[in-house]
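Handoff note, outgoing to incoming analyst
You'll be picking up this chain. Sequence as last confirmed:
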Amino acid sequence: MTRRTPLGPVASGASTRHAGSAASGVGLALAAGLAANVAPSLARLPSVRTRFPHLNGDGHPGRVALTFDDGPDPASTPQFLACLERLEVQATFFLLGVMVQQAPALARELVAQGHEVAVHGWDHRNLALRGPSSTRRQIENGAAIVAEEAGQTPTWWRPPYGVLTTAGLLSARHAGLTPVLWGSWGRDWRETATASTVTADVAAGFHPGSTVLLHDSSCTATPGSWRSALAALPNLVHRWRNDGLTVGPLRDHELRA
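Most recent structure output, in case you need it:
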């Protein structure tokens, strides 16, 4: 699936136009159910972030939480693991269930190398276009396969596209997962992304204590776009360390309440 024009992290707000177009073809009953799922979460995240900084991933001001989405991908994740090993950095990997199903040994290798695994869902479909039952299956099945194959019980959940819905939040709570988005991202999924653009985009939204989002797979993006993140990674880590910041996974980030 080709990655979209970015929604950015939203509390389901930018998704309403998609919800409306989908509902128009499937009848009033489904439209009403979808609206009930989406409507309580229409605020864009700038206001939500102010009130709930933990959703934004804000943590200890002396730290950076480094996170990756969309793996584990045999074509690319091992290269990120090798780079992180050279940099002596551990990170949090938000895994897709369908990718874990295809590469269970790689999920285990993430944990074996000291990284943290978390839940991105079963696949990468927008939760604003799913009903409550489907949303719950997405999250619970994703969490189950991550725990089973990686051998580590996940703590965190990040929804595809950063879209939070009422059903998603309730399902995550039921599964014992804490939702977390990001404060800074590299926009590394774009066809035009380079190491320089990734570095600049991360810097644009960054502050000490940020959670940074990169992608270790292009399974939902322009093929090969992950190379821009990989090329930018050493420079990003060196910059943060030169600024006196400790780079690590979310488990060490001391998220603000």
